[in-house]
Amino acid sequence: MARLFSITLLFFLSGVLSAQAQPTAYIGSNNNNTVSIVDVPTNRVVRVFSLNNGSSADTSDVSSDSMFIYYGGNTVTAIDTSTTGIVGQVVVGNAGSNGIAVSPDGTVLYVTSSITDTLTVIRTSDFTVTDTIPLGPGPDNLAFTPDGAKAYVTDQVDNLLYVIDAATLTVSLTIPIPGGSLVRNICVAPNGQFAYVSSTGSNIVSVIDTTTDTVIDTVTVGDSPRNIAFTPDGAFAYVPNGSSDDVSVIRTSDHTVVDTIPTDQDTPHGVDVTPDGQFVYVTAIFSDDVAVIRTSDNTVIDTISGGQLDGLVDNGRFIVNAPPPVRSIPTLGEWGMIAMACILGLAAYKAMTRRRAKTA
């Protein structure tokens, strides 16, 4: 009887655990230096942890295997997504960081600073600074190409892109952005063929051919575009507009805006897409909330707010394809699953007892 009950309970508890194996959003708050872990798609904050170490919770990137999320700041920090424990840390000094990007193979981090006008290279195996590359007067966001051969760094003062050769760790080329003003953010398409670059001051997104490293198109979006995120298939890009409080949806086949989504937020900046491409998460700096957009019809289906969600992440990726860390206390829904397992186990025990009584 005990074995039957144990098997039944184990079956249902495994259902509880597997239900947690979903994409998870790590929403950073730069005001209080905490990270709220949001379960997707239930949109519940399931854990909050602190980065009281000089890291900046508004600048982040995720390793390709989703095992780590990295935060910038005066102290660059690696967090193990299975435990939320710090597994790597290095002080980069008063330089701080504007943007952070991890290479596709996970071996190095690039961190930009508009204070020292440099790009810092960090080896992730032992969290050692291995190189510092001087740049121009306003480096901001950055992104690697999928093959890891080069990285692009935006410059918001000179309104151009630096092309970093990953093999030689040198600036191999600079790409002027025509019509660009406050060139802030960049994202490379999943197929690596082109990149989108937002100009906050001129309300445009420039299209970069990554083969020729030239500007091949310009897309007019909303007011003060910031971050950019592609759907996993690369068919669409979502661009939050910080002053018009909406999100432009760009069809990448012809680089055309096909939708504009009001989010009812105050200054949306950060954006990331779930690995299955079904949802887009948009963070806002001043309304302290996260809008959840369903990509099938480009509708805002939820808004997450409260708790530690203030001064939210506005640079880089923050959604990992891994379950939230295990919690010591089950949620109400999980208690329900456990109760159901107990009831079914008890029912199985009673049925077996009656069967034995009949055959005795």
CATH superfamily of the largest domain: YVTN repeat-like/Quinoprotein amine dehydrogenase
* Overall morphology: globular
The number of helical segments is 2
Oligomer: single chain
Question: Could you name the ranges where pLDDT drops below 50 across 5 or more consecutive residues?
Answer: 2-21, 328-335
Quick structural overview:
The chain is mostly beta strands and 360 residues long. Helices cover 13% and strands 47% of the residues.
Protein traits:
360 residues, mainly beta, Methylamine Dehydrogenase, Chain H, five-stranded mixed sheet, four-stranded antiparallel sheet, 2 helices, disordered N terminus
Can you put this structure into words, describing what you see?
The chain is mainly beta. It has helices at 2-19, 332-359; strands at 24-29, 34-39, 44-50, 55-62, 68-73, 75-80, 85-91, 99-102, 108-113, 118-123, 128-134, 139-144, 150-155, 160-165, 170-176, 183-188, 194-199, 204-209, 214-220, 229-230, 236-241, 246-251, 256-262, 268-273, 279-284, 289-294, 299-305, 315-316, 319-320. The strands form seven sheets. It has a five-stranded mixed beta sheet with strand order 7-6-5-4-28, with no helix packed on it. A four-stranded antiparallel beta sheet has the order 3-2-1-29, with no helix packed on it.
